[in-house]
Design brief:
The chain is α+β, with helices and mostly antiparallel strands. It has helices spanning 13-27, 36-43, 65-78, 132-141, 159-164, 256-268, 281-286, 303-313, 328-343, 365-368, 400-416, 445-464, 477-482, 486-499, and strands spanning 32-33, 58-60, 82-85, 104-107, 114-118, 123-126, 146-147, 180-186, 192-194, 228-235, 237-238, 243-250, 276-280, 318-325, 349-352, 387-397, 423-427, 431-441, 469-471.
Length: 514
């Protein structure tokens, strides 16, 4: 009998040994990982919890829907929970580790087929293990005039995984949960369903028309544990005739509301059609330099020192950036309107691509709006060093006074626990998603505890002020669900009990249990 380091909850060693033998018969022994050194990468969480508290018991790596169905039959028999990942690169949110200790990881990276690309409609039917880089390479190799709309860590993450977590990109399909059509889903009992018009033989609109007939159920499989998504139709971004970026620098903290309101008006009237970003000056510095190179003191850098540091480095308090699409005539007209609108808000400077001071295609996130993929976003992880990060992701209406309230609240809470405020605000037409990183040294128990407590207070206080969390790391999912009240949680539990009575699919995902 194997001496397993971790067992699934409520499962004996003998029962688990029998299940592992069955899994090996289905997949082959090479694709059932039970040795601690092979499981170790799945325990790396970055967030401020111990790796042991979220340790999986084993890892399964199927290559087909049929194998998944067979694995589920074994899991139901032995009451073994599965935590599904596509590539497991959800860094700062728990990565590949499960919400419940002892769950088995169902790693779908071997299911990496690009099954169909429709060059007329700009859609791609793919499997969960496909990465944005793989899809981009396919489009480039076949000379198809489309971009992938990737999030910041795009090259190494899955379009399906990012969509199911309601992630975002930077081009015209930036809100990924609205940029797909059609799912194939394996339910806990092994049944396979297709959403929309997918059940029709030779369906002509599965990747084109999402709603189908009857209740729209696709949303049930995002941020949930109701099924295992094995195929999805992703919408691609047509390459425009041209793209040009712009940045607006503001010298004062109190300039934020007018920057937000101006961008919102330009989005709503169609001058700007893609997401924009508003980063504070310390974020800009954090992407390029480690904190110890300019500040060695304890705790958060005092506000007056931050102001002096930004002035010394020639950085603004806020940098707003965006991109416009079109031919030369269109982009010229749009950029003129944008420049006029922002100049009326008394910024420090408005720069248009081609003018002095702005790189070609803009900076970092702006480059992503033109179909480029890079791992530059990970530079921010070096700000403190020590490998610790957890992201808080609240949402505000796209109103200046609300965004300012959220930013002020977030900074005050971070400072309370001795952390710097590196603000990254992603601006749509009606909503703003904020990404606030808590960076800490994982080898320092005091800073790990502070990061844990800081995140908890951030989530509690911003939610009570009306700013909900649109994503949450695995270890805090129950708390995030509690903030939305018992009625919704009870409703989701009733669905879970009906379609997964043994509770084998991702127990605890988004706070949903049987």
């Amino acid at each position: 009998m194997n001496n397993f380091a971790v067992l699934p909850p409520g499962v004996s060693a003998s029962s688990f040994t029998g299940a592992v033998d069955e899994f090996a018969h289905i997949l082959g022994a090479d694709y059932v990982l039970i040795d601690p050194e092979r499981i170790a990468p799945y325990r790396k969480v970055y967030i401020p919890v111990s790796e042991d508290s979220v340790a999986p018991s084993a890892v399964l790596m199927p290559s087909s829907v049929q194998q998944i169905q067979q694995l589920l039959a074994v899991c139901n028999k032995h009451k073994i929970p599965l935590w599904t990942i596509s590539t497991g690169r959800n860094i700062g949110m728990g990565s590949a580790a499960p919400a419940m200790r002892g769950s088995m990881i169902l790693d779908l990276r071997r299911m990496n087929g690009i099954l169909e690309v429709d060059a007329d409609l700009g859609s791609a039917l793919i499997e969960p293990g496909v990465t944005y880089l793989q899809l981009k390479n396919y489009l480039d190799e076949h000379k198809l005039p489309f971009w992938v709309d990737a999030p910041s860590p795009g090259p190494i993450v899955s379009p399906i995984g990012n969509t199911l977590e309601r992630g975002h990109g930077y081009s015209t399909h930036q809100d990924h949960v609205y940029a797909f059509s059609g799912m194939e889903v394996v339910l806990a009992n092994g049944d396979v369903i297709r959403t929309g018009f997918g059940p029709l033989p030779n369906c002509k609109s599965w990747q084109a028309f999402r709603a189908g007939y009857g209740p729209y159920i696709d949303g049930m499989f995002t941020q949930s544990n109701f099924g295992i998504v094995t195929k999805m139709g992703i919408w691609l971004t047509p390459v425009p005739e041209g793209a040009k970026s712009f940045v607006v620098y503001y010298a004062h903290r109190e300039d934020l509301p007018k920057a937000v309101d101006t961008f919102r008006r330009l989005r709503l009237n169609g001058t700007i059609t893609v997401v924009g970003s508003i980063l504070n000056g310390l974020s800009l510095l954090g992407f390029s330099a480690r904190r110890s190179s300019f500040w060695t003191g304890k705790g958060a850098i005092p506000r007056q020192q931050v102001d002096a540091l930004l002035k010394q480095r020639g950085l603004p308090q806020w940098r707003l950036g965006g991109v416009v699409y079109g031919d030369d005539q269109e982009t010229t007209i749009k950029l003129r309107k944008i420049k006029q609108a922002f100049e009326a808000t008394s910024p420090a400077e408005v720069l248009i691509e081609g003018s002095a001071g702005i790189p070609s295609w803009g900076e970092g996130d702006l480059a992503s709006a033109t179909g480029k993929l890079s791992l530059d976003a990970f530079h921010i992880l070096n700000y403190i060093g020590g490998g610790g990060v957890i992201f808080h992701m609240p949402v505000s209406a796209m109103k200046g006074r609300y965004v300012e309230q959220l930013c002020n609240m977030s900074e005050d809470i971070l400072r309370r626990f001795g952390f710097d405020y590196l603000a990254m605000n992603w601006c749509n037409d009606r909503d703003m998603h904020q990404t606030t990183g808590i960076f800490f040294d994982q080898t320092d128990p005091a800073r790990v505890r502070a990061a844990h407590d800081c995140f908890d207070v951030l989530m509690q206080e911003t939610s009570k002020a009306g700013f909900g969390n649109y994503r949450c790391s695995t270890h805090y999912m129950d708390k995030a669900a509690e903030l939305l009240g018992p009625e919704l949680r009870a409703f989701l539990r009733s669905i879970k009990r009906a379609i997964d009575p043994n509770g084998i699919l991702a127990p605890g995902k988004s706070g949903i249990h049987i």
